[in-house]
Amino acid sequence: MRRRWLKPLDRYVFIEYLKILAATTVGFPVLVTVIDITEKLDKYLARQLSLPVILKGYLMNVPYTMGLVLPAAVLFATVFAIGGFTRHSEITAAKASGISFHRFIRPIAVGSAIATLLGLLLAVVTPDANARRDEILLEKKSDLNNRFNFTFATEESRTYTITTADKQRGYLEGVVVERKGNGGDFPSYVFEGATAAYNVRRGIWTLRRGAAHVLLGDSANFTMQFDSLRDRHFKEEPAHLMSNPRAPDEMGFRDLQKYIAAMERSGSDVNQLRVERMLKVAIPATCIIIMLFGAPLATSNQRGGAAYGIGVSLATTIVFLMLVQLTQAIGNKGLVVPELAAWLPGIAFGIVGGILLWRVRT
Predict the structure, then answer these.
(1) Are 36 and 54 in contact (CB under 8 A)?
(2) How do the domains of the chain map onto residue ranges?
């Protein structure tokens, strides 16, 4: 098996493909960054940000931009690499030597699979990088003194549902603290308090005039009333509770899943969040799918040259992005299962690509 993958033809095809993939994967983010800096430079200078700070902020934006353009980069690399092999009759020579088209593009499929793994890795590091970017570029500010009817999910898998929050007074009204457990050793519980006050010295909140519900199981649940309850895990500062909720692109798959569960318990519509969560996997997986779609297209015109390759790539990218937007809207409205909506563009391109690949003369 190892010798088969080390054949000179495989190395040649893989290297040629990798050259174009690397150039587009790096080149597209650079182009996007230059355009974005040009448009927003006045705003950043008005915030008294120095040029090194601005560049550092955009450096944090590279994982997000690279992950976003990775499927398009794979498509460009596939179309231009196979288009070049076709124009120089290298595919014809391979066929004459008994190597089928499907076997010829196998190194490209491997390269696309590597791009998929890279996309999944970028999806992991992107949330922290985006949060750091917004912090550096002063994109998010929290000047709120009051906040109403919101849900706050903690890193300890606890959920706070709060009716009214006053940052200056360190005071809450209508507080529900919920933790989902898994049985008697780690029970679920719900604390309900009419009000809550923050103790600055101790760094914790005290709930007042409420009830504590401990859920050990179907037959071992109990409730007790309290005048005051000091929750040592409820230690978020008032300013922290007032901060703007993180956007989906600032949360990883697991964090977003926990946030969705918390929002569902509060009765919120989470269809859009469910689509965003699944897109974190669906977009990277599109790399291998879109390679299957682009490979047969690249063989359909031997004399089109670079113009043909650019045209096919751009047209396919535009159609794919339009399809993503359309299916997102459908998923957000709940017309189809949100998770399925995130995969619909990939499924559609996969089916068409499979048909085109099957029809290619091998």
Answers:
(1) no
(2) 2-139+273-359, 146-243
Given a contact cutoff of 8 angstroms between Cβ atoms, the answer to whether 71 and 283 are in contact is yes
Evaluate whether 88 touches 167 at the Cβ level (below 8 Å): no
3-state secondary structure of 11: helix
DSSP-derived 3-state class of residue 228:
strand
State the distance between the two ends of the chain, measured CA to CA, in whole angstroms: 22
245 strand-pairing partners: none
Please tell me the distance from the alpha carbon of residue 318 to that of residue 72, in angstroms, as a whole number.
Answer: 10
Summarised one tens digit per residue, pLDDT across range 151-171 is 887 766 788 889 999 988 899
Beta-strand pair 188-199/146-153: unpaired
State how far the Cα of 274 lies from the Cα of 339, in Å rounded to an integer: 6
Specify the DSSP element, H or E, that contains 177. Answer: strand 171-179
H/E stretch holding 190 reads strand 188-199
- pLDDT for 273 equals 86
pLDDT < 50 positions in the chain: 1-2
Cα–Cα distance measured from residue 277 to residue 255, given in angstroms and rounded to the nearest whole number: 9
Q: What predicted TM-score, i.e. pTM, was given to this entire model?
A: 0.69
Residue 1 pLDDT: 45
At residue 303, the pLDDT reads: 52
Which region holds residue 174: left if phi is over 0, alpha if psi is between -120 and 50, else beta? left
